[in-house]
Amino acid sequence: MKLLFSLKLPLKLHSLIIPSLSIPTSLLKFSPPHPPLKFPTTRFPSPKSMATAMSSPKPLVQVKDNIELTETEEKIFHRLLGTLRHFNLQTQLRVAGGWVRDKLLGKDCYDIDIALDNMLGSEFVDKVREYLLTVGEEAQGVAVIPCNPDQSKHLETARMRIFDMWIDFVNLRCEEYSENSRIPTKQKFGTAEEDAYRRDLTINSLFYNINLSIVEDFTKRGISDLKFGKIVTPLPAKATFMDDPLRVLRAIRFCARFEFTLDEELKEAAACEEVKAALAAKISRERIGVEIDLMIAGNQPVKAMSYISDLTLFWTVFTLPSNTEPEISEVCNRLCIACLDATWNLIQHINCFTFSDEQKRLSLYASLCLPFRKFTFKDKKSKKIPVVNYIFRDSLKRKVSDAETVVNVHQVLEKFLSLIPLLVSKEEIQPNGFDWGVECADVPATSRIRVLTGLLLREIKDFWPVALLMATLLYPANVDYAQDLLNQNFELEKRKELFDVIYNETVKLGLENVWEMKPLVNGKEIMNILQLKAGGPLVREWQQKILAWQLAHPSGTSEECIDWIRETHSKRVKLDE
C-alpha cells in the first residue's frame, strides 16, 4: 500500500537530533493513512521478538532529546547569525565537541568552539567584530592562535569574547599526510562529516548546527556511545592517536570523568610502543601537564591515574631524570597509585576539616609523588635536587609554586611523624635530632609541644593539613606500609581518627593559622637591644627565638618579650665571659 503526503517544516527546527544532513530537511517525506488499516483485536508478540527486546541493552546514561540554550547562548548565537545576514554569508556555523556532549548530558558548559565550513576563524572573527560595531557593541579580547604542526596543533584558532564568554572559531578540516609523517602535507576545507571523523572520540564528534538549531551525528554513533557510556575513536584508534597522541590522555580523562568504558581496540592502541613514543616526542610537556592537572582536579583522579598505569603510560607521562639516586624500581608506579587511592578515600571520610580545591589538588599530587620523596638527582652544577621537583617542573611543566609546596610537604613529614605521638598522648616532648630552628632547651617543657608544632606549621602555612594527611599515611614512622597500601589493607577508619585527633588538638592549641602571627619585636628593635651596628645571623637567630617565646607565651606583650630578650642576652654574655 502506497501512502504519500508532504510535511512542510518550519524555517527553524527546534534542536532535532539527526545522524547527518546528506538529505536536505526540506525534502523529507512522510505518509498519512489511505483507508485505515485493520488489526486483530488482540495481538501478542512472538517469543522471538520478546527475546530480542529483552536482550537489547538498555542505555546506561540519560541523554537529552534536544539542546536547551541559556539566555546568554541565545544572545551569542543571535549575534553570529546576524553577522551572516549582514554580510550575506553562506557559512554554516556549528558548535563542536564538548559543549554539545555536555549539553546533551544536561550539564552546563562555558567552552564554545565553533567550526566554520568555508572560511578561516580569523576571517569570520573580523566579520563579527565589524558587525558588532554596526549594532553599537564592541568585540573584546580578539586574538589569533597560530597552528603548530610539530606539536600536533594543526589548526589556526581565532578567539573573541562575546557577552563575557570566550568563543573559539576554527575551520572544518580535511588533511593529507605523507607516508612517514603525521604532520599534514596539505590542508583544505573539509565537510562536517570529514571533520567529525577527525575528532578524538565519537562522543566529542557531535555538532550543533546554529543555522538550523539541530544536533548532527555524522559518525552515526556519537549519540549511541554517549548513551551506552563508551569511549571510542571515530577512526581506527591507532591512526587517531598517531594523528595527535595527546588524544590518549584525553580518552583516559573523559573515561574517568564520566565513568565510561574504554574500547578494547582503543586500549590496545594506547599501550602500543609507537603511540607512547609519539606521545613523548610530539606533544609538549605543558600540554601533557594540563591533561594530568585536569585529571587530578577532576571527580575520579584515582581511576584516571590507574588507567595511565594499566596502559603502561605512567613512565611516558611522569618522566624521570637519568641520574636518579637511588635507582627507582619500575613497579614504583603501583605504589604511587596506591598512595593516591588511600589519600582520595581518606579525604572523602574526613569531617573535621574541609579541604579547599587547591589543598585537595596538592594533597593528591603529594600522595602520588610520595614514593619519590627520598629520591634525588644531580643538576648541571652537581647539586642534589628532589626528583619530585623534576616531575613538576620538567615532566609536567607545572607551576613552580606547586613543586615547592609538594616538596615542602614531603620535607616536613619526618618532623610531623615525630610530633604525632606527643600530640596524641600530650606527654612532655624530648629534643631529637631534627633541626626545629630553635633549641628545645630554651623552651619551657610545658610549652614545647605548642612551640614546635607552631614552628612546623609556619614552615608550610595553609598546607599543614596536607602534610598531616600524608603523615597519617606513614604513621608510625618505623613501619613500612608499602605492602599494606599495595594490598589495600589500609585501615581507613583508623587513619581518619588519627587525622581528626591531631587536627582537633592543633585547633585547641590555637595554631591553625599560626603563620599569620606577627613578631612582637622587629629586627631593628633587636639590633638596638643587643647594641648591634648591622644585622646578620645573630639577628635571624633572635627572630626565631622570639617566635618560640611568643608561641610559649600566647598572651605575652612586646614589653614582656623585650624584658625576656634583655635578661636572656645578659645571661649569655656572662656565660661567655
UniProtKB/TrEMBL annotation:
<keyword id="KW-0694">RNA-binding</keyword>
<dbReference type="GO" id="GO:0001680">
    <property type="term" value="P:tRNA 3'-terminal CCA addition"/>
</dbReference>
<dbReference type="GO" id="GO:0052927">
    <property type="term" value="F:CC tRNA cytidylyltransferase activity"/>
</dbReference>
<feature type="domain" description="Poly A polymerase head">
    <location>
        <begin position="93"/>
        <end position="231"/>
    </location>
</feature>
<comment type="similarity">
    <text>Belongs to the tRNA nucleotidyltransferase/poly(A) polymerase family.</text>
</comment>
<keyword id="KW-0808">Transferase</keyword>
<protein>
    <submittedName>
        <fullName>tRNA nucleotidyltransferase cca2</fullName>
    </submittedName>
</protein>
<dbReference type="InterPro" id="IPR043519">
    <property type="entry name" value="NT_sf"/>
</dbReference>
<dbReference type="GO" id="GO:0052929">
    <property type="term" value="F:ATP:3'-cytidine-cytidine-tRNA adenylyltransferase activity"/>
</dbReference>
<dbReference type="GO" id="GO:0003723">
    <property type="term" value="F:RNA binding"/>
</dbReference>
<dbReference type="GO" id="GO:0005739">
    <property type="term" value="C:mitochondrion"/>
</dbReference>
<dbReference type="InterPro" id="IPR002646">
    <property type="entry name" value="PolA_pol_head_dom"/>
</dbReference>
<dbReference type="Pfam" id="PF01743">
    <property type="entry name" value="PolyA_pol"/>
</dbReference>
